[in-house]
């Protein structure tokens, strides 16, 4: 019993710490900024041809993930939850993405190999 | 050895309801992943304009969540009669929801999008909405259970416990339906 | 009489148990007491195991002597063995039901159901499960599932016979084989009940472990058995619902004519209307459950053997944390490897590559477990109780079977091994032998806890050695059939010239299987005899540390008279230097074992460390421990 | 447990049956009795030792420890015996190009796992023997050692990395072949149904034509679409004959349920799934005649058969494969009949007279089209 693992029991106290008014506004500002960037990409960069649609899509995905992270972490309090919950949610999130990618690849494969009439 | 008799601890049982919610979500996750692969393999989804009744039923079920929430609030203030009335409203809304689902199926059948056909994506709509309706029935059972608890004037802790599990479950199936509906809308 | 006395004064922590009067029915049949439910699961499981074992002997006879008549088969199989020879369809039915019963009813319900129910409350210090009612329901759903599954033997068209994986279209199109008619419907009904039962059980176990531990029992003081049951239950909660989704779609395909899994099917010249579905999708849904299922089967066995090996080596389990982390690792990884059953079934080969990687990674946590078992034996003081023998057998089988899994996990090797006897050999070693041995170890170890009596050790020895040897004799040679390209689920090997050379091996294997089956008589006799006539057990017959042995031998509702004991230490303080006895139960506070405390026992609690230091200064003798 | 149809068994002489059943039961009971007597004897012996105040009769811990040691020795010998005796009865070396890679991979895995198997078992049973119970000793309190644990996590991880990498490369080389447009594989379509196989050769144009299951009739059991020009010259065959050294691309389909096309000598297996077309490309390297010499068996035949449960006839779904020289193949293929016969011509409203031979340019165009589809299929 060496590695002292208190993760399950402690950290309870800083549950409700953080998330002051100022913090909320800061996070809100970040989210706003990301959204503005997205709009700029959609309305300016892509139509003007500075960025291809293809790359744009990836940038969108990344930005959306970033937004999701901020929302989940701050507004949904995950940042202040127990480590176990954080881990569980992160792992399930990664899994879901992984599964969706798998399913779409498999669907694409079936699309080619099934006899469509 | 003193009697610690009725230190009623609802926590483990509430947790059971949460776990049930998890496993239920997983089941619908299974359904939707079937749909995703199927749609990807066809290059298209069900291709229908979903019947309007689904919009109304979504509104109804959201409304029912709100009334249930208010009922829980009333109970917290120990206003039992208001709680009961609101629960009854919830039950009625739930029944209305069921009727509308049947209605939606009916209008799908009329447009020719029947359960049995060679587009599994359309059959899928029936199956998931049907499985969801089964959850609604279970949810109504829980609400009635909460009602009964309220009428039987059990200890407050127990009434509250029954109310809580009904709430957890009912809000879950509300969200579940919204998820399914949006999923079906997005994956035409 | 002490029972009665105790009964009156014990207290209920839980509500809904206001009434006390126990009738025969509420005590033995619709019991809500976790210990009684555990016994119900165990005995039902044993009955199902015996039935499934009987089925295996029947089809082994067919495999060994494919063109010989056995009139006695006709006597009790009737039209399915006309002229004393089993029919091909019935052969497949036997194999299917054998697999289904063994995997689901014996090793899922029988193993998890029994030991989770018995040990979770007793080892974490709870009066009962979170919801005793759900627990009772769980057993009765399981019971109904068993009855329905067995009832399919009495119908005209026979039981489901598409293999335990019931791949469509074979299992969906009733014309494809007789077993796909009513038999398959019963199979599905039984499965739905079974899944409901497992979910109710699993949800209960998780909630109990997380919420109802006694004072001091933090997660890192739980015995490995509890960790294993807990993670197994999580695995079940997260994977069984996917099977339900798959089964629902299958029911619609079978009964309503939808096309979820069907497309482009022509039976003879009969063109079916279904179009657009894909059978591959069932395979994905099935194996998303099916693979975690095999770990649902093995993890409780690994947990039990951890406990048994530690107790009987009189040594702490080596690397407790590593054992837990490897269980967690197996749990997490088991969700992302299901495709290794589908390398050559028409799945995207790209995914085959991905699944190969994830599959082989699972060998790492398994390796950690294996080596930790070995390290636990090292310099132990090993008492070979029957339970210990079976636990050692488990380790051996797990290594052998796991290593053959490494072949299968390699997609390019699986091309030639898929659906051959190599696979059969693999999963019998790891499941039919290792997991069964884990279960038997558990039965021998906790029989005194369940029935208050001891089993006869010498019959246990006989049972172990016969089964251990016979199981290797049965399953080791089967690998070579597979390597020679002999497919599984073959009714007879007579149609192929190259398979004929394996007939003698088949005869040998069948005799070994019969020997294994007869060896079980020793167990069955011992088990049922000891329930009534066994030596009365002392309270802690194995001198173990865990909490269940602090409860009285007599079963009482609520487990402990008076307060539930508090836990102070981890469960593996065996042969601790400086202590006179070679075990220190979890309920002994450190203040009573000053001479044996080690610095890290205090987990950084400075006050306690200080007290310990002061004590050591005052008692210098204790220094020469080690 | 199946009393269901017991009544319907009048023919056999039941007397004999009962006699033999009773005989075996008696034998079993006698064995039980024997065991019971031994058990009692042991008990009496132990009791008498106890009465004499001597240490308990049998030291079971020592007995089991010795049995484990014995089991280790005999077991390892048994494994050796199995490897050499049964190991020599296995499939001959792979008869295909990718099969050789698989065999190499297999041998590597076999060596690694055998080493692990032997070492761990020596440790397991060795420890059981050495550290058997003794009242004089106390076990060594040794709860963990992080260094050792790290070592035995990392070493298997490394070994498995090697296996994963090599396996992955092998797998990729099998299923993701880059097609050489000048060296087009021979297409052969194989269709499974309960409980037989149908083989379709592409004919002169090198392309097997379309199918549509809705066209299935008694005269057109495969549902071949003869509206498709490529189908018209498709040929049927009773056995699969392939030229040695040339790549073959199998197109696998199924009519009814899932079957599995399994050709162990070539290390080829892929399920045939209704509604799907899947491909397996391989290159045979040994002719049947060469294999007959190598295995010393003049009757040797390559086979393919069904490896996926598919119904009562699953155990007997086979066809012969003949690997021959290019020249033999040419003469053989020239003799095969086309699927399109006069009946079918009428059915598809085609002129009954044989269709005019296609122009060279036409078939060349078709070929490059075929290459394109193949590549698409292989890309994902
Ligand atoms: C208890 C059940 C159980 C367990 C634990 C396992 C464990 C494993 N299984 Fe098994 N498996 C089944 C039950 C089980 N399996 C069943 C029932 C089927 C067939 C289903 C059907 O089709 O009917 C099956 C089928 C099956 C297949 C599909 C075969 C096919 O149909 O073609 C594959 C392929 O990857 C596979 C792989 C593995 C692997 C890699 C492990 C690993 O977890 C094993 C890990 C363990 C070890 C490796 C041993 C210990 C480790 C060491 C001593 C360290 C050193 C080792 C190395 C460095 C290599 N199994
Ligand atoms: C736990 C799982 C388990 C167990 C124990 C067994 C036990 C046995 N199995 Fe089975 N088997 C399966 C799971 C299992 N099997 C599965 C999943 C399949 C695949 C089905 C399919 O293809 O669809 C299969 C298929 C299968 C086949 C392949 C058939 C085919 O493909 O054609 C064969 C062939 O020999 C076989 C043989 C045997 C034998 C001889 C035994 C035994 O008789 C060996 C001897 C007995 C024992 C080693 C001890 C048994 C223990 C007890 C009875 C005591 C129980 C104790 C308690 C409950 C406490 N089995
Ligand atoms: Cu066709 Cu098995
Ligand atoms: Cu698996």
From TrEMBL, chain A:
Main subcellular location: membrane
Keyword annotations for this protein, in alphabetical order, are: Cell membrane, Membrane, Transmembrane, Transmembrane helix
Pfam name, any one: COX4_pro
Question: Where are the bilayer-spanning segments?
Answer: 24-46, 58-77, 83-105
Q: How does it sit in the membrane?
A: Multi-pass membrane protein
Q: Which InterPro entries match?
A: Cyt_c_oxidase_su4_prok
Q: Does the keyword S-adenosyl-L-methionine apply?
A: no
**Please, which domain of life does this record's source organism belong to?**
Bacteria
Compartmental location: Cell membrane
Name of this chain's protein: Cytochrome C oxidase subunit IV family protein
Species annotation: Pedobacter riviphilus
Q: Print the organism lineage.
A: Bacteria, Pseudomonadati, Bacteroidota, Sphingobacteriia, Sphingobacteriales
UniProtKB/TrEMBL annotation, chain B:
Compartment(s) where it occurs, according to its Swiss-Prot or TrEMBL record: Cell membrane
The record places domain Heme-copper oxidase subunit III family profile at 1-188
Segments spanning the bilayer are 15-41, 53-74, 86-104, 124-147, 168-186
> In which domain of life is the source organism classified?
Bacteria
InterPro entries, alphabetically? Cyt_c/ubiquinol_Oxase_su3, Cyt_c_oxidase-like_su3, Cyt_c_oxidase_su3-like_sf, Cyt_c_oxidase_su3_a-hlx
Main localization (coarse): membrane
Q: Does the keyword Cell membrane apply?
A: yes
Topology relative to the lipid bilayer, per the entry, is: Multi-pass membrane protein
Keywords, ordered alphabetically = Cell membrane, Membrane, Transmembrane, Transmembrane helix
Q: Which Gene3D superfamilies match?
A: Cytochrome c oxidase, subunit III, four-helix bundle
Quote the PANTHER family the UniProt record gives. CYTOCHROME BO(3) UBIQUINOL OXIDASE SUBUNIT 3, CYTOCHROME C OXIDASE SUBUNIT III
Q: Which family does it belong to?
A: Belongs to the cytochrome c oxidase subunit 3 family.
Q: What is this protein called?
A: Heme-copper oxidase subunit III
- Native organism: Pedobacter riviphilus
From TrEMBL, chain C:
The record's section on InterPro entries has: Cyt_c_oxase-like_su1_dom, Cyt_c_oxase-like_su1_sf, Cyt_C_Oxase_1, Cyt_c_Oxase_su1_BS
Bilayer-crossing residues are: 41-63, 90-112, 133-155, 186-206, 226-252, 285-305, 317-338, 350-375, 387-409, 421-447, 459-482, 502-529
Q: Where is the Cytochrome oxidase subunit I profile domain?
A: 24-550
Q: Which keywords accompany this UniProt record?
A: Electron transport, Heme, Iron, Membrane, Metal-binding, Respiratory chain, Transmembrane, Transmembrane helix, Transport
Q: Which residues form the signal peptide?
A: none
One Pfam family hit: COX1
Q: How does it sit in the membrane?
A: Multi-pass membrane protein
Compartments it resides in: Membrane
Give the protein family: Belongs to the heme-copper respiratory oxidase family.
Q: What is this protein called?
A: Cbb3-type cytochrome c oxidase subunit I
Q: Which organism is it from?
A: Pedobacter riviphilus
């Amino acid at each position: 019993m060496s590695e002292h693992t208190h993760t399950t029991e402690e950290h309870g106290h800083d549950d409700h710490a953080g998330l002051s008014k100022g913090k909320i506004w800061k996070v809100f500002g970040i989210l706003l900024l990301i959204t503005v960037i997205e709009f700029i990409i959609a309305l300016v960069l892509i139509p003007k041809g500075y960025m291809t649609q293809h790359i744009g899509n990836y940038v969108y995905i990344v930005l959306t993930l970033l937004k999701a992270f901020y929302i989940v972490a701050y507004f949904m309090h995950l940042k202040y939850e127990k480590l176990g919950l954080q881990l569980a949610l992160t792992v399930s999130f990664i899994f879901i993405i992984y599964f969706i990618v798998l399913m779409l690849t498999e669907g694409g494969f079936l699309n080619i190999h099934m006899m469509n009439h | 050895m003193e009697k610690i008799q009725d230190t009623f601890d609802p926590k483990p049982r509430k947790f059971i309801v949460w776990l049930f919610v998890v496993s239920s979500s997983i089941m619908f996750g299974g359904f939707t992943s079937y749909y995703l692969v199927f749609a990807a393999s066809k290059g298209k989804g069900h291709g229908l304009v979903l019947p309007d009744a689904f919009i109304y039923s979504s509104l109804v079920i959201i409304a029912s969540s709100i009334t249930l929430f208010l009922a829980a609030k009333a109970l917290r203030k120990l206003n039992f009669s208001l709680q009961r009335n609101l629960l009854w409203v919830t039950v009625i809304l739930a029944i209305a929801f069921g009727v509308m689902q049947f209605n939606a199926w009916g209008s799908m059948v009329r447009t020719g999008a029947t359960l049995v056909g060679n587009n599994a994506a359309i059959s899928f709509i029936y199956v998931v909405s049907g499985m969801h309706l089964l959850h609604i029935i279970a949810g109504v059972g829980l609400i009635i259970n909460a009602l009964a608890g309220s009428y039987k004037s059990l200890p407050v802790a127990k009434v509250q416990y029954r109310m809580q599990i009904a709430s957890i479950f009912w809000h879950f199936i509300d969200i579940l339906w919204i998820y399914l509906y949006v999923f079906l809308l997005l994956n035409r | 009489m002490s029972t009665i006395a105790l009964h009156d004064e014990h207290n209920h922590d839980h509500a809904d148990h206001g009434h006390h009067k126990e009738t025969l029915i509420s005590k033995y049949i619709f019991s809500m007491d976790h210990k009684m439910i555990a016994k119900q699961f165990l005995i039902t499981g044993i009955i199902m195991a015996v039935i499934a074992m009987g089925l295996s002997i029947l089809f082994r006879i067919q495999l060994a002597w494919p063109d010989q008549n056995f009139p006695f088969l006709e006597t009790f199989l009737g039209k399915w063995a006309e002229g004393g020879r089993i029919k091909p369809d019935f052969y497949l039915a036997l194999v299917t039901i054998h697999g289904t019963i063994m995997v689901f009813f014996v090793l899922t319900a029988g193993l998890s159901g029994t030991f989770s129910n018995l040990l979770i409350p007793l080892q974490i210090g709870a009066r009962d499960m979170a919801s005793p009612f759900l627990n009772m329901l769980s057993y009765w759903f399981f019971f109904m599932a068993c009855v329905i599954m067995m009832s399919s033997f009495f119908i005209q068209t026979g039981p489901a016979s598409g293999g335990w994986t019931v791949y469509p279209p074979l299992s969906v199109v009733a014309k494809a084989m007789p077993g796909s008619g009513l038999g398959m419907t019963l199979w599905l009904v039984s499965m739905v009940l079974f899944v409901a039962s497992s979910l109710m059980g699993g949800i209960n176990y998780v909630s109990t472990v997380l919420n109802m531990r006694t004072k001091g029992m933090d997660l890192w003081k739980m015995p490995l058995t509890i960790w294993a049951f807990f993670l197994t239950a999580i695995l079940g909660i997260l994977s069984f619902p996917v099977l339900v989704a798959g089964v629902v779609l299958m029911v619609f395909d079978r009964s309503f004519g939808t096309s979820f899994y069907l497309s482009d099917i022509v039976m003879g010249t009969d063109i079916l209307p279904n179009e657009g579905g894909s059978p591959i999708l069932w395979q994905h849904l099935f194996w998303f459950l099916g693979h975690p299922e095999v770990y649902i089967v093995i993890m409780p066995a690994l947990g039990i053997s951890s406990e048994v090996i530690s107790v009987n080596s009189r040594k702490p389990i080596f690397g407790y944390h590593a054992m837990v982390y490897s269980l967690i690792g197996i749990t997490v990884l088991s969700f992302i490897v299901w495709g290794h059953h589908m390398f050559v079934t028409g799945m995207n080969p790209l995914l085959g590559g991905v699944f190969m990687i994830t599959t082989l990674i699972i060998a790492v946590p398994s390796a950690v477990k294996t080596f930790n078992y070995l390290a636990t034996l090292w310099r132990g003081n090993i008492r070979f109780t029957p339970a210990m023998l079976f636990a050692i057998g488990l380790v051996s089988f797990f290594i052998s079977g796991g290593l053959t899994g490494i072949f299968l996990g390699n997609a390019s090797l699986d091309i030639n091994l898929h659906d051959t006897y190599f696979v059969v050999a693999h999963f019998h070693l790891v499941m039919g032998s290792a997991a069964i041995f884990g279960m038997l170890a558990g039965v021998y170890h906790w029989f005194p806890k369940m029935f208050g009596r001891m089993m006869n050790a010498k019959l246990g020895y006989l049972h172990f050695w016969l089964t251990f040897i016979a199981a290797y004799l049965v399953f080791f040679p089967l690998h070579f059939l597979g390597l020679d390209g002999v497919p599984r689920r073959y009714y007879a090997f007579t149609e192929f010239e190259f398979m004929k050379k394996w007939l003698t091996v088949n005869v040998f294997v069948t005799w070994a299987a019969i020997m294994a089956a007869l060896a079980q008589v020793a167990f069955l006799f011992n088990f049922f005899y000891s329930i009534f006539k066994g030596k009365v057990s002392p309270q802690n017959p194995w001198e173990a540390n865990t909490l269940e042995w602090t409860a009285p031998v007599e079963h009482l509702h609520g487990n402990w008279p008076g307060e539930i004991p508090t836990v102070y230490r981890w469960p593996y303080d065996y042969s601790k230097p400086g202590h006179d006895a070679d075990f220190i139960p979890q309920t002994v506070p450190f203040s009573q074992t000053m001479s044996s405390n080690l610095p890290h026992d205090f987990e950084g609690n400075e006050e306690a460390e200080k007290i310990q230091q002061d004590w050591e200064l005052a008692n210098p003798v204790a220094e020469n421990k080690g | 447990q199946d009393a269901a149809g017991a009544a319907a068994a009048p023919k056999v002489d039941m007397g004999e049956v009962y006699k033999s059943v009773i005989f075996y039961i008696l034998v079993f009971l006698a064995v039980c009795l024997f065991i019971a007597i031994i058990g009692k004897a042991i008990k009496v012996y132990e009791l008498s030792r106890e009465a004499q105040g001597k240490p308990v009769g049998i030291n079971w811990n020592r007995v089991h420890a010795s049995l484990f040691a014995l089991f280790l020795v005999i077991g390892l010998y048994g494994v050796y015996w199995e490897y050499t005796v049964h190991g020599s009865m296995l499939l001959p070396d792979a008869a295909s190009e990718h099969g050789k890679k698989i065999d190499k991979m297999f041998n590597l895995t076999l060596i690694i796992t055998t080493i692990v198997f032997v070492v761990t078992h020596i440790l397991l049973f060795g420890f059981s023997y050495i550290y058997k119970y003794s009242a004089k000793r106390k076990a060594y309190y040794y709860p963990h050692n992080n260094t050792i644990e790290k070592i035995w996590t990392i070493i298997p991880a490394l070994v498995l990395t090697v296996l994963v990498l090599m396996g992955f490369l092998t797998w990729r080389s099998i299923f993701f072949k880059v097609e050489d447009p000048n060296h087009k594989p021979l297409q052969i379509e194989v269709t499974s149904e309960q409980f037989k196989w149908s083989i379709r050769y592409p004919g002169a144009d090198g392309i097997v034509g379309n199918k549509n299951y809705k066209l299935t009739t008694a005269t057109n059991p495969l549902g071949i679409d003869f509206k498709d020009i490529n189908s018209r010259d498709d040929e049927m065959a009773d056995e699969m004959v392939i030229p040695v050294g040339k790549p073959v691309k199998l197109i696998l389909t199924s009519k009814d349920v899932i079957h599995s096309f399994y050709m162990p000598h070539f290390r080829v297996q892929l399920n045939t799934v209704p509604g799907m077309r899947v491909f397996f490309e391989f290159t045979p390297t040994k002719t049947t005649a060469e294999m007959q010499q190598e295995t010393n068996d003049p009757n040797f035949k390559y086979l393919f058969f069904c490896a996926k449960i598919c119904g009562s006839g699953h155990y007997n779904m086979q066809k012969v494969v003949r690997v021959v020289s290019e020249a033999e193949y040419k003469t053989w293929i020239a003799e095969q009949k086309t699927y399109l016969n006069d009946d079918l011509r009428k059915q598809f409203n085609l002129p009954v007279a044989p269709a005019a031979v296609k122009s060279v340019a036409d078939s060349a165009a078709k070929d490059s089209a075929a290459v394109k589809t193949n590549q698409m299929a292989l890309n994902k």
